[in-house]
Amino acid sequence: MSLIHFQVLSAALFSIGVYGVLARRSAVMVLLALELMLNAVNVNLIAFAAYGEQVQATGQVIAIFVITVAAAEVGLAMAIILRLFRDRASVDVDEVDLMKW
C-alpha cells in the first residue's frame, strides 16, 4: 500500500465525520462523529511518519497526544451530555438553550 491509499482512507473517514457532525441531532452521535474525525487525523499522521524520508517518531508522538486529548474530551463531553439528559430528558442538540435565562 502506498501513502495515497492512507490519505484516501483518512479523507473518507474525515468526510463521514463532518457529515455526522453537521447532520446529527443527538449529542452522542455528534461526539462519535467528532471522534471519527480525530481518528482520521491520526491515520494521516501515522501514515506520514511511516512513509517519511527520515525515520522519526514525530507522527506517532503527535498521534498519542491526539488520542489523549480525545479521551479527555470524551470524558468531559459525556459528563455534559449526562447532565443535560438529567435536566432536560433529551440529548437533542437543537434543544440546548442552557445559556438562556
- The portion of residues forming beta strands comes to under 5%
Q: Averaged pLDDT, please?
A: 84
**What structural category arises from helix and sheet content?**
mainly alpha
Topology, number of strands: 0
CATH class: Mainly Alpha
Major sheet description: none
Radius of gyration based on Cα positions: 17 Å
* Overall 3D form: elongated
Name the poorly predicted regions: none
Q: What pattern of helices and strands is seen along the backbone?
A: HHH
Number of helical segments?
A: 3
* Gap between N and C termini: 56 Å
* CATH architectural category: Orthogonal Bundle
Number of domains: 1
Helical proportion, percent range: over 70%
The name CATH uses for the topology is: Helix Hairpins
